[in-house]
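Weekly puzzle thread! Below is a chain. First person to post its structure in token form gets bragging rights.
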Amino acid sequence: MAEAQVFDSEMERIGDALVATSEAFEPPASMLAEAAESLTLPEEAKLAIEAEHFKASAPGREAIEAALAHLVAGLAAEIEFRAREFDMREVPTRFEKLIGLVSRSAMRRRQLARSRRSVSLDHLAELLRRADRLAALVRAERVTLLARRSKGEADLKAFIDHRPDIIEKLHGENGEAMTGVEAARRTEDFVAVFQTFIDGLNAGVGTCNVLMHKLLIDVEDLLILYQVFSEVVSRHGDEDLRPEDFPSLSPEIERFSKGMLSVHGLDRRRDRANEAFAERFPAEAVRQAAAEAHPAGAGWRLPAISDFKFMRP
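Winning reply:
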């Protein structure tokens, strides 16, 4: 399927971009760790260079986050589109109504054939596969960011705890090396730079949380649709979906297989997830709403952004 190949290609590009972005965290993290261990400040010029490099990498990180949001929103819109197609299966088209004037059974057979063409278990399983890949990528990035944040916070705390000693060392025994005010300023500048570094990691973790929350809610919708459709076509969908085939969604698939999925509270949780997503990615929320408002189209189309072109043919 060409569409699946396009999705996989985009995922590979995002994965490569995340690796490159992760490498950009290495120099400031190493500088912070070295300062915390040696209780010495880096040269001001080096600190300024690292601060500028980290600031310059922010647009790239935001572009990657937006790219992931495109795919998550696109998946949600396609799930909604397929759900609407399924809901409309009992509504005859104009041509089917004409057939019904001659034969009601022929009209019903045509309706059933249409519903099976528009929504198939194989297609829904493909959407689950995409959700599984997205979940794996977002979870892996979250784990990486959490590890960096934990190490960075520990190093920054160690530095701050020894700040009086560092200022004293900079000041010198007789105040000849540096004035107390200048020594305090340099340590404050260092702390400010690396607090920004930690804040960036926190923001990345928060973005991953928003994406995962929405993605898993959408997966619940997809699994419920899969279950309902499998019953309509007289197949046992739970026999077709195995947790090992979707390792990043195994808890959800296991609940599905055991018949433990429930719509109770789903609307409320979906609203919360969508609100958080819209707050973090307002443009994507608007595009998703527009796609869901016009289900007669061919589904979701991902727009191009910056250097990443996420387009479905």
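Puzzle host: Confirmed. Bonus trivia for everyone else. Residues 2-302 form one domain.
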